[in-house]
Structure formats: C-alpha cells, structure tokens
Hints:
The structure is a single chain. By secondary structure, this protein is α/β, with parallel strands linked by helices. It folds into three domains: 3-22 and 202-294, 3-Layer(aba) Sandwich (Cobalt-precorrin-4 Transmethylase, domain 1), CATH 3.40.1010.20; 24-107, Rossmann fold, CATH 3.40.50.11270; 109-196, 3-Layer(aba) Sandwich (Cobalt-precorrin-4 Transmethylase, domain 1), CATH 3.40.1010.20. The protein has nine helices and 13 strands. It has a five-stranded parallel sheet with strand order 11-10-12-1-13. Strand 6, helix 5 and strand 7 form a beta-alpha-beta unit. The longest helix has 17 residues, at 24-40. It is flat. The two termini are 34 Å apart. The structure holds iron/sulfur cluster (SF4). Iron/sulfur cluster binds next to helix 1, helix 4 and helix 7.
Amino acid sequence: MNPTQNAPSMPIDIYLASPRGFCAGVVLAVDIVELAIKKYGTPVYVKHQIVHNPIVVAETERKGAITVENVTDVPEGSVVVFSAHGSPPSDYEEAKKRNLMVIDATCPLVTRVHNEAKKYAREGKKIILVGHRGHQEVIGSTGQTDMTLIDEREGIEVPEFSDDAEVAVLTQTTLSVRDTAAAIDDIKDRYPNAMVRNDICYATTNRQEAASQLAEMVEMVLVIGAQNSSNCNRLKEVAESYGIKSFLINGPEEMDRSWFDGVSRVGITSGASTPESSVAAVIEAINPKNVIHIGKGDENITFRLPKELEPEAGTAARQ
Ligand code: SF4
C-alpha cells in the first residue's frame, strides 16, 4: 500500500518531540552486534530481539545476525550477543554449558539494577521490583536474586514482610514515571523506611517529559515504534493521560486517514528503540505545513563497548 494513501488531506502542523528515538543503550547494543559480525564473521546469534523494534532487528539480520529466543537455540560453540534488556544468570550458565562465546549487550543502566539487587540481597534486605511481568528486562532482573514483583497493571499488592524487615525497592528502567510513583507511594505507606531507588532511566524520563509537553499543544500524538516496546507504550499512555488520542505505529503504512479528521496539530515522538528513519517516513507521508520542535533537545550520553570489541571501534559507542 502506498503510505501516502493514509495521509491527511487537510494541512497539518507537526510538533516534533526532542529527545526522541535511540538512547545510548540502544546505540550500544546495535553497535555491538555490528562489530561482533565484523570481528567474528557470520552468523552471530542474538538472544532475544537485540532491541524491541522490527526494523532494527531486520537490519542486523540483513548483516548476518540470527535472532533466537532461547540460549538453547544457539548451536554449540557459536558467538551470541545477549540483548540490551538484560538476561538472568541461568542464560549465562546455559551458554557456558554450550561452549558459547557471549558478548553482553545489556544496557549498563539495566546492569546497575542487577548489581543493586545482588548487593541488597547480600545485605539481607527484602527486595521489591516494580515492573511489568513477562517483559524481558523483568525476566533478567528477577533472575538475579530472590525478589517480589509488583506489576501496577495487575493492581498494587504490597507484599507482607515482618515489620522490622529492611525493604529495598527497584524499578524496571522503562516504566511510566507517574504510575511508578503511585506504586512507590503504596509501598512507602506500608514500609515508611523502604529504600527506594529510582531506576527509571534518563532516556525514559526525558522522552516522557517531552511527550507531556507535546500533549499539551496538539490534538493527537503519534508514537512511532513497535507494539512490544515498553517505552513506546508508556509514551502513548502519557499522551492519553492528557485526554487526547494517541496511536503507536511502526510507520506510515499503519496510519489511518480517519485519525486526522478535524485535527490540525499532530505531535510526533518515538521510543528509545525506534530508528529515526521511521519518524522521517511518517513526517514525509503527512507532508506537514510546518514542523515545530518541542522539548529540551538531544542527549549527550554514550556507553563504553565491551572489552572484547573495544579495539574495533575506539573507546565508546557513537551517540
Ligand atoms: S531505554 Fe534506558 S535502560 Fe533501556 S537501553 Fe535505553 S538507556 Fe538503557
């Protein structure tokens, strides 16, 4: 289908959020796969989608990556990259049994949550993780040590520990800032001395702030990205919390012309795993009268490559 068939017929002003799109963790993960292919040849296996975006995954596969869901799907002796979302220790153990060379693309901000969890467990604290059951990051984090998951979508049921228990609260990095605050309020009501870490990452926080600014200025928000991207879904919810309609789409082919009826101001943002080419394609299809930039602008954060790959590309992943 020609994407322009879905485009609005009335003149539109686009309000474009910044920051949007790739975060430093996603840039790092994609660089790791590309450099691993360059260094070790094809195929390089990737356990779980390297990031939650079909275009990014397809591009890595075009270059020679093979995405699998489980470590047991990787042939013995192969090179495997573990995705940006983080993995439980059982995956590393299985990889060792299969004699795999593991290159870890876990975002350093997720690794920090893993390290916090292990430290609090050593200190004898009771750990609560606020996160979404079944999300890959939560599978990785809950595997680190014993902890109780609170998924605010299922209702906030605060676990019963003894009154003198020391409680530490961790969070998934890509949650809604607002919903997480509500869950933490409930935990604090029960355990006033609970130690609360704010693990929602800079990229999630900045994109949600920019989406809030957008939502105050427009009649509809398009979030560009994948349905299985946590942070894209949270951006859509942020827009909806302002009472305006919002749609999460991969690209212009998923737009519906009827969405634009009676609309002249459209906000656009994208999640941390969405390539800018997808945003550009949507803007091109809408063919707006004006593009107005909203938000505090680009971030300047980079993460180091893992030591196995550093000589291939200098000292740090590009931003
Ligand atoms: S969204 Fe945040 S935690 Fe996830 S990869 Fe990006 S920087 Fe890391």
